[in-house]
Amino acid sequence: MTYKKVLTIQDISCVGQCSLTVALPVISACGIETCVLPSAVLSTHTGGFSGYTFRDLTEDMPSIKDHWKKENISFDAIYTGYLGSTQQIDYVIRIFNECLKDGGTRIVDPAMADNGKLYYGFDEKFVEAMRSLCAAADYVIPNITEACFLTGTAFRTEYDRAYIDELISKLTSIGCKNIILTGVSYAKDKTGVVVFENGSYSYYEHDFLPGSCHGTGDIYASAFTGAFVRGKSAFDAAKTAADYAVECIRYTGTLENHWYGAAFEPVLYKLIQSLQ
Question: Residue 219: which domain range?
Fold first, then answer.
């Protein structure tokens, strides 16, 4: 097996089990060298904490990229998570073009919305920029809300296969090549992942656990990236990531007052075992 190198670009929330504090250990556990480009540093994530600190690192991104080029540093895959502005998206597209190895993979988690709503601070201008980033990617990993914003589709909590097929069709029409659509539920107490790759549809169903944990989307996208770059097919990587995210949520449910994130570390060994 070739020792591969992934770059992940997203923010650091120092406390909160999300973004880079998830991506770095999870992808590393998959046996992949994991390099990081932080887009911002926050004392905590923004979901439930107040008075957090925030330092924007947008202006550092071009000089970091230029230094990598000078040192002939390139990556087998580049995976993006939460990005804070349209300017950061522009810089990421340049990094795709200048720092990815020939034949490398671009993976985009368009982390901008959930439960029918955009995250705080995002607007249609940001959504439009995210469309461009998704069109530049080889694989996109939206949830249903994000897919709706990307395609201008009305968000629904109850739907059928035809609705999901329409979302997939609209995503391909804006340039998305291969799609991992998360949180797709066709039956009560079940949810799953649609994998649309090279024009072919497949679906992996798993248990739906009540309640929610901040950062599970980051856990999922990171585990998918690690498993895929390690050599699993897109469907098998999607399945591996889904099973691991469920384990994280299930374990978190046994803890008291762990409201701010998913406890991914105690079950990280299960992800490692699934890759062996």
Answer: 5-274
